[in-house]
Design goal:
This is Auxin responsive SAUR protein. It is a single chain. With 90 residues, the protein is α+β, with helices and mostly antiparallel strands. The chain has one domain. 49% of the residues lie in helices and 17% in strands. Strands 2-1-3 form a three-stranded mixed β-sheet. It is globular. It starts with a helix and ends with a helix.
Length: 90
């Protein structure tokens, strides 16, 4: 993902934060292959390479048109929970 595209994703993410009932400094994302579950994650994750890989997958699958009205990440919930646990301890 080029730096311009990453900036676009971050800008869209910041707009989503304003529209949701999400604490300042956090972002709501929807995760799952079929059934999607809402997670609230720190904006600092946007700088992490592992999280950026998920953003690339999201862009490839959905572009900037996310069916849930928020950022949708196409991965298994268990994998997302594992990844965010790794980010919390790093």
């Amino acid at each position: 993902m080029g730096i311009f595209r990453l900036r676009s994703v971050v800008a869209n993410a910041k707009q989503l934060v304003k529209r949701q009932d999400v604490p300042k400094g956090y972002l709501a994302v929807y995760v799952g292959e079929v059934q999607r579950k809402r997670f609230v994650v720190p904006l600092s994750y946007l700088d992490q390479p592992l999280f950026q890989d998920l953003l690339r997958r999201s862009e490839e699958e959905f572009g900037f048109n996310h069916p849930m009205g928020g950022l949708t990440i196409p991965c298994h919930e268990e994998a997302f929970v594992h990844l965010t646990a790794q980010l919390r301890i790093s």
